[in-house]
């Protein structure tokens, strides 16, 4: 029998396992940051666009307000620990690229790094945004897309 319950009790049943991503952003001082995100989706075929929902308290929110690009990283199984690092620490306190030993290429749009170990990576420019309660939805247009055929996509959580 279906029951009406509090949203947290309902959502806990339906949201996992999930695809999760990371978004690379640039800090105002020019260093790069990474955030783990469960809330993202494709929003347009042509031109290709993806939306990410970022909490107002996240440092990544400050970064996106300052620099209007993000790289969407689809993690490989090898990046499980990096996902955890980037989802539990703030770029206000640590340099996640150094802490995570992240290797990268400059990319083709060349605004933000493309992660070498990722299953896929999309170089995006923010084209629109909308406030959604305590988060902001940033919609990015994809300019260049990268795929790593040596890597398998990671689903969260996976043992
Ligand atoms: C599995 C997972 C999914 C998450 N999804 C989101 C999300 O969709 N949006 C968001 O704002 N934060 C999300 N977070 C929380 C941020 O990743 C976390 O607060 C992070 O430390 C913020 O880093 P920053 O302060 O450097 O931006 C998620 C965390 C985890 C572990």
CATH homologous superfamily placement: Electron Transport, Fmn-binding Protein, Chain A
CATH class: Mainly Beta
Helix content: 10-25%
Give the low-confidence spans.
Answer: none
Quickly give the structural class: alpha+beta
Q: What general outline do the C-alpha atoms trace? A: globular
Report on the structure:
- With 159 residues, this protein is an alpha+beta fold.
- It has a single domain (18-156), classed as Electron Transport, Fmn-binding Protein, Chain A (Pnp Oxidase, Chain A), CATH 2.30.110.10.
- It contains four helices and eleven strands.
- The protein has helices at residues 7-14, 59-66, 80-88, 96-99, and strands at residues 18-19, 21-26, 32-37, 40-44, 49-55, 69-74, 104-105, 114-115, 120-132, 135-147, 155-156.
- The chain has a seven-stranded antiparallel beta sheet with strand order 3-2-6-9-10-5-4.
- Strand 9 and strand 10 (135-147) form a beta hairpin.
- It is globular.
- The mean pLDDT is 97.
């Amino acid at each position: 029998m279906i029951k009406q319950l509090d949203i947290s009790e309902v959502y806990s049943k339906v949201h996992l396992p999930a695809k999760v991503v990371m978004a690379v952003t640039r800090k105002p001082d020019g260093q790069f940051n990474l955030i783990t995100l469960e809330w993202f989706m494709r929003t347009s075929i042509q031109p290709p666009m993806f939306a990410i929902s970022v909490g107002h308290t996240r440092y990544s929110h400050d970064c996106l307000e300052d620099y209007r690009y993000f790289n969407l990283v689809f993690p490989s199984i090898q990046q499980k620990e990096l996902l955890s690092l980037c989802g539990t620490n703030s770029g206000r306190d640590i340099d996640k690229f150094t802490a995570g030993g992240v290797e990268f290429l400059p990319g083709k749009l060349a605004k933000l790094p493309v992660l070498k170990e990722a299953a896929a990576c999309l170089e995006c420019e923010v084209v629109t945004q909308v406030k959604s309660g305590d988060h902001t939805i940033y919609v990015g247009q994809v300019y260049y897309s990268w795929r790593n055929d040596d890597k398998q996509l990671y689903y969260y959580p996976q043992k």
